UniProtKB/TrEMBL annotation:
Residues of the YbaK/aminoacyl-tRNA synthetase-associated domain: 43-148
Name listed for the protein in its UniProt record: Prolyl-tRNA editing protein
InterPro entries the record matches: ProX/PRXD1, YbaK/aa-tRNA-synt-asso_dom_sf, YbaK/aa-tRNA-synth-assoc-dom
Species of the source: Lentilactobacillus rapi
Homology family: Belongs to the PRORSD1 family.
GO MF, one example: aminoacyl-tRNA deacylase activity
Upper classification of the organism: Bacteria, Bacillati, Bacillota, Bacilli, Lactobacillales
BP-aspect Gene Ontology terms: translation
UniProt keyword annotations, A-Z: Protein biosynthesis
Length: 161
């Protein structure tokens, strides 16, 4: 798969008339990276999969530990079957690597293998932060605009607790 690019992410936002604020910064690889700019909304972007069933999920949540048991219960699967996707899964499904997982890369999931899971708490945040397919920038957009982007990519999210 071709790598996800910043240009295609920004082109999608422009096509959808999505207003956003852009913050450029040094590369950020984890939530605790010392290069992370202060004051941005803290969210996690994780690609998870269910063992042996090859079903994938993109999970966005406020920066808190993931309760795999609760998540698995909401999905109706055994929590022991839920694992992090591998680096090769990230590249194959979204065209990104660890540290660059973003809902904007879902445009590469043309086979619709990824089920989007949005934490209910995201609805209350004044802005959602996401990488534009690169970890050297962050864009801030409204929750409603995130839903428009997901809809345009034909990814109906499941709202989870």
């Amino acid at each position: 798969m071709q790598p996800a690019t910043e240009q295609e992410a920004l082109a999608l936002l422009a096509k959808l008339n999505i207003k956003y604020k852009r913050v450029d910064h040094p590369a950020i690889w984890t939530m605790n990276d010392p290069n992370a700019p202060q004051g941005l909304p803290e969210v996690k972007n994780l690609l998870l999969k269910q063992k042996k069933r090859d079903q994938f999920y993109l999970y966005l949540t406020v920066n808190q530990p993931v309760d795999f048991k609760s998540l698995a219960d909401q999905l109706g699967i055994a929590h022991s079957r839920l694992t992090f996707a591998s680096e090769s899964d990230l590249e194959r499904l979204l065209g990104v690597i660890s540290g660059m997982v973003t809902p904007l890369a879902l445009m590469h999931d043309t086979k619709h293998e990824v089920q989007v899971l949005l934490n209910k708490q995201l609805q209350t945040m004044p802005a959602i932060s996401a990488h534009p397919n690169t970890n050297t920038a962050t864009i801030l957009l409204a929750y409603g605009d995130l839903l428009k982007v997901l809809q345009a990519m034909d990814h109906e999210p499941l709202i989870i607790e």
